[in-house]
Structure prediction request, 750 residues.
Amino acid sequence: MKRISKSLLALLMAVPALFTTNVMAQELKKPTMEDLIPGGETYRYAENKWYQWYGDQLCLELGIDSIKGTSETLARSGKEITVCTLEEINRLLEEKGLGKLRHFYNTQVVNLGKYYNIGVAKVNIAQPLLLFNTGKHRVLVEKTSKSQPLNQWEKKAIVWSQPRPQGAANEDWNEVSRHLAYTQGNNLYVLTADGQTQQVTDEPTGIVCGQSVHRNEFGIYKGTFWSPKGELLAFYRMDESMVTEYPLVDITARIGELNPVRYPMAGMTSHKVQVGIYNPATQKTLYLNTGDPTDRYFTNISWAPDSKSLFLIELNRDQNHAKLCQYDAETGELQQVLLEERHAKYVEPQNPILFLPWDSNKFIYQSQRDGYNHLYLYDLKKFSAEGVQLTQGDWIVKEIVGFNQLTQQVIILSTEDSPLQSNLYAVSLKNGERQRIGDAEGVHSAQLSGLMGMYLIDRASYSDRPRVITLRSTNPKKTKSVTLFNAENPYKEFAMPSIETGTLKAADGKTDLYYRIVKPADFDPAKKYPAIVYVYGGPHAQLVTNGFMNAARGWDLYMANKGYIMFTVDGRGSSNRGLEFENATFRQLGIEEGKDQVKGVEFLKSLSYVDGNRIGVHGWSFGGHMTTALMLRYPEIFKVGVAGGPVIDWSYYEVMYGERYMDTPQTNPEGYKATNLKNLAGNLKGHLLIIHDDHDDTCVPQHTLSFMKACIDARTYPDLFIYPTHKHNVAGRDRVHLHEKITRYFEDYL
Prediction:
């Protein structure tokens, strides 16, 4: 009998396995649009759990019916304690007429304490409190037992409650003073801890107080800022009475009603902002003496630890000169300009300074001055404009998580391991030495424990796992960890597409770009597939990561399983790659980015299984601009496009974002002309669908309507679809309809 070669034997043994795998893949059903799109009736989302820290060691799991607690020690032994149940807390609340809870997901822990010897475990920590929000009241509950928190939780008591004002918005509660700042209409109010309502402002129409300003640019997301102990309240006052009103129409009324918004377009008159400081004890307000606030941005507000000074980063309208300013909180006068940064293109401050918890004279400042966002340490007592650079390298600090106060390290998230990730590092404030916390893979976020920052809850996402929650020490020398939760793949029962990532060269021939390819679950390399490019391309966005499914969206997965190759590349201009990578598109938005997308298509066409004659493109907002621009500039490449909420003419876009990247129409007329897609309307050859929301106050409908007029004049024929009552995207149940509409367009024409 002849011997069978090892290679032939291996092949024969593999055949049954391959056959079994193919049969199983055929038996699995493919996920539907309802399974994949948020708002779908059967939308599959990865299971989640919510945690809060009670002090520095007890980690609370917030559930529906109970709050359970664990610690590193308890978790290793497989034990946990029940802190409280919904039944007992609701019994406490109802006895006082404070309403009731439906679940514990929104519970907060108030960790209060005062350090008097940092660097060793000699601290004075107040008993943490549980903060419940019933919808009508805020309620603080404490454990009244004198035993240690890990031992028993039998006794609980309500120690304080505060009614929530009806119609309140932008609520900002301070855990020390227990004062609540909030807005009603365009005015600011304070509800004191003892229940007194104080009206802080009484302004006429056109002036807005206590709300976010500068259209949420520069990292601004709110309009009130309590001092550390909550005795003073800094707030924004925005006068937009001089800003042109843009007409939006509410079509739900019997006769359509006008809902105008103040919308400062590039090169036009912008709003004026002041910063006020309100004292609830005296009920008096003063405003910082910043001089004439015309064409200036006041960003990144922070308080000194002693509440005597207020710091902010002031930016000129050209956004190429930033100043870190210190103001006297008692007089409102400028004390000093600490730092100044200039750049030929733009400076974009996005983070307030952060004082060290153990040293009220030292703070961390974040800057891109060396081309990447890094940390710099400053000392007010012996101030030097250069500071001490704590981090450096061709990567960015994405976030400061907090401090380990025993080891005197700052805990950060950075892209040091990969531009596609965010990983945890502890950075020594003495010498800048960095040590990774946890693994080198995935996309992480974290929540530090109590006051000392000895532990953290690490929430991570990996390409093959949607969510892993881990309890870790923030001391890198302590490498042991405890997995609290490992979410299952919500699509494990489905036949799912395959996902690949890689790099290709940008149009400049030297810069690496990261791409993602999604292939059908039943992919056949012998077939020729149409391809769709999903694009954004603009600042502050990254579409390809090492998170779950490499950040592929539900629609990408759906279309892949329908027989399309789905492709995305993050070109120059996008986020998390450093300043030079981002500002390569300065004054010509959409042009260099388009060249990089074409390089991506060239790569696609090199693949044997891609039909180079059937290339489509889709994107929203900046991606809508890119989609339209690619269809017009490269009509021989892109055959079908669907553009959502597109910017067509940058002169119609708002001041802060538009002028940062394009300058003004007055100073950059050539750039505005070259990027105005109305001027290219005659180039349209393929099928282009533009979708816009009728209440879009980010990218106003004028963009799309004016483009339609330009196409009519040029005798080209795009298609148009409007989503009534939505703003800059389509949310809720209608989001499924949106993606069905997009899908049908590609099915019809690609």
Remarks:
- The radius of gyration is 28 Å.
